[in-house]
Amino acid sequence: MLSLRQLSRQLPRGLARLSSTAARQPLRTPAFAAARCAAANFSTSLSRRQDATTQELAAKLNSEIALEKEQQADDSYRYNCQEYIDNSDFKIEDKTGQEEVHLTRSYGDESIKVTFSIADFNTYDEEADAEDPALYGDEDSALDMDGQSGGANTKGAVNQGRTAGGNIRVAPEDDVAPADRPELQDEEDGSASFPVRVQVTVTREGKGALAIECLAQDGEISIENVYHFPNAELAEAKTAEKDWARRSLYTGPPFGQLDEDLQMLLERFLEERGINTQMALFIPEYIDLKEQKEYIGWLNNMKTFVS
């Protein structure tokens, strides 16, 4: 069958062979009619497929919204978060559609800002974290586990010494399954929280700012780095120029290289300003609530767009 483009090129030749009367009549060759019918059928079929896909997508979005609303976080999360907000010295700044959340307060002549993001919820890989060799102890423990045989070569087995056959002697008081041990019940119940990066900025007029990078997890806030900036604007560089100026400064050594007493005093410095256990418990729970709220909002926006 000739293509429509080929037909259009040959039409003048066909018309030349026709009488003047016939030439004034619309050309109805079988090939032309078949091509036009095929094009019409293709267009109709494509339109129907597009409509069906759009309807299927809208239905799927509706089911996802319903599912998320059924699986919304436990009410205790909302109660705990609200209780913290009501009783804390910090004010919360949370804009719908934004990933970052800010907690702000004044402490003497200091302005304190705590920033965290729901991005940590979306990027946390629980399986990768569970496979982290550091969670299984030091290298000696790893070697001991490699040397175990039979059922003793399992996570949580107690190494009390080896028998001649290479098996492990287990004392009676240790003959308890790891899942039944009180100290491990929280982990087995899945109550351990995901790690959240927290940025603490402490600013003093005329004295610059401290930018303290922390990690909040399982009710603890651990300091990772402490930076000092003579210009407070560099502590939260929002432009490429300020970021470049920030990179060129010496802001201090890694926190772990500091004197232990200095580390302890910096941790106490944060605690006195309310960056403490209560905040470490609040942040992951609030992220859980906000992420779900933002996700439901995103689903609704998607549904509105395709409907």
What this model shows, in words?
This is Mitochondrial glyco protein. It holds the Pfam family MAM33. InterPro entries: MAM33 (IPR003428), MAM33_sf (IPR036561). Residues 148-191 are annotated as: Disordered. By secondary structure, the chain is an alpha+beta fold. The chain has three domains: 4-69, no CATH class; 75-124 and 194-306, Mitochondrial Matrix Protein, Chain A (Roll), CATH 3.10.280.10; 133-188, no CATH class. Helix content is 48%, strand content 16%. The chain has helices at residues 4-17, 20-23, 30-70, 75-87, 119-123, 126-130, 139-147, 185-188, 240-247, 260-272, 277-306; strands spanning 91-94, 100-107, 110-117, 196-204, 208-217, 220-229. A six-stranded antiparallel sheet has the order 1-2-3-4-5-6. Strand 5 (208-217) and strand 6 form a beta hairpin. Helix 4 crosses helix 11. The chain is elongated and about 85 Å long.
